[in-house]
Amino acid sequence: MPGKMLNEVTATRYITPLREGGSLPGLVEADDLGTYVMKFTGAGQGRKTLVAEVVCGELARRLGLRVPGLVTIGLDPVIGLGEPDEEVQELLKSSGGLNLGMDFLSRAIGFDALAHRVSPEEAGKIVWFDALVNNVDRSWRNPNLLVWQGDLWLIDHGATMIWHHNWPGAPASAARPYDASDHALAPFGPDIASAAAQLAPLITGELLAEVTAEIPEVWLTDEPGFDSADALRRAYAEPLLARAATIHERIEIGEVGAK
Ligand SMILES: Nc1ncnc2c1ncn2[C@@H]1O[C@H](COP(=O)(O)OP(=O)(O)OP(=O)(O)O)[C@@H](O)[C@H]1O
Ligand SMILES: [Mg+2]
């Protein structure tokens, strides 16, 4: 399969857990001296969460949205032996091998709809993208948007593409509308039509093949109903390709909850 893979680094030091994160992501230092937010294969939903991060992060980036750079991080659980926190130690123990890392945006602050302005154009692109991947985790309660150096950055795509938890039902699930009423950017008058006109034509089979080629092979093995990693990569591409052309007609923004 052509295309490039994510860079791979090795964790050298576990720094601290990021307590706000439900899945207990941690801050780690790696052998390239970079500092990364690390998401663990041993956490809750396991590797599917990480696959969703890769597919959505790499897709959003190609659409011109800001997403912290992604890498894979090799973990030897031995670095967790000295961890005083038992929950952290368990997580590190169960996450040997390849995990996901994301560039740490130092001193980024969480998005606050009352403190930041977002243009209808940018809001439209983000809402359209979230509709495409069916992201249910960018609500005003939990925006998963960071403000860094004055710009909005997208994080936390682990709860997207719900259809990958039930592949036989994927076509029906992917045909459903997207309710954006609770979306963190709903109050900013998102220009969905203009976003769709600009972004939908970019979603091609070729682009999705490039994106899905970046999913580490070891996170794609032994999926029931698929006899190869590449077949599963194609399964990730299909619902996205099917949704891209018309999802803008099925984005519902009812009563805006935030304000
Ligand atoms: N790349 C990053 N740079 C700086 N801070 C980050 C980055 N990624 C995550 N964080 C911080 O860590 C928190 C948890 O990250 P994230 O939302 O990805 O984890 P999660 O476990 O999926 O969270 P939850 O389920 O609670 O939404 C974020 O709210 C943010 O404060
Ligand atoms: Mg989050």
Automatic annotation (TrEMBL):
It comes from Streptomyces flaveus. It comes from the Bacteria. The lineage of its organism: Bacteria, Bacillati, Actinomycetota, Actinomycetes, Kitasatosporales. Residues 17-166 form the HipA-like kinase domain. This is HipA-like kinase domain-containing protein.
